[in-house]
Amino acid sequence: MDDNQDSVVVIGDVYTLVGRRDEVIALLSDTQERARPQPGCVSFSFAEVVGDPGHYVVVEEWSDPAALRTHFTTDAFTSYQENVGELLARPSEVRIYRVSETTRPVDSGPMDPRRAD
């Protein structure tokens, strides 16, 4: 990754052992809270997938590639990597996206039921 002004979005699927949920939640919560204040972290969240026990999604946004590379060297990331392996049911799947433009839709307000047809 070169260092231009593109932001970086990371989306990962983490497949954990269902019987170790409490340990998984503790690790994910700790990692999330330690990552969020890092320089360049725009957002960092784990979420449990509805209807798929043990499956979590991580969504991270970093201001630029350098911020993500720095995150990979932190104690928060290293600790996560050292501890997650024994909690996995299968390998995680991670995708890293470079984002050059973001559009935020404007809320058009509440729907008028008279105009529904």
Q: Can you walk me through this structure?
A:
The protein has helices at residues 21-35, 65-71, 75-84, and strands spanning 7-16, 41-48, 55-62, 88-99. The protein has three helices and four strands; from the N terminus they run βαββααβ. It has a four-stranded antiparallel beta sheet. Helix content is 27%, strand content 32%. It has a single domain, classed as Alpha-Beta Plaits.
SSE map:
Blueprint: E1 7-16, H1 21-35, E2 41-48, E3 55-62, H2 65-71, H3 75-84, E4 88-99
Helix pairs in contact: 1-3
Main attributes?
single chain; 117 residues; alpha+beta; Alpha-Beta Plaits; 4-stranded antiparallel β-sheet; 3 helices; 27% helix
Low-pLDDT windows of residues: none
With helices defined by DSSP (H or I, 4 residues minimum), what is the helix count? 3
Please tell me the overall pLDDT.
92
The CATH class is Alpha Beta
Helix content: 25-40%
* CATH topological fold name: Alpha-Beta Plaits
Number of domains: 1
Strand order of the largest sheet: 2-3-1-4
Shape: globular
Radius of gyration: 17 Å
Largest beta-sheet details: 4 strands, antiparallel
Task: Please identify, by name, the CATH architecture.
Answer: 2-Layer Sandwich
Strand content: 25-35%
Distance between the termini: 48 Å
Structural class: alpha+beta
Quick structural summary:
By secondary structure, the protein is of the alpha+beta class.
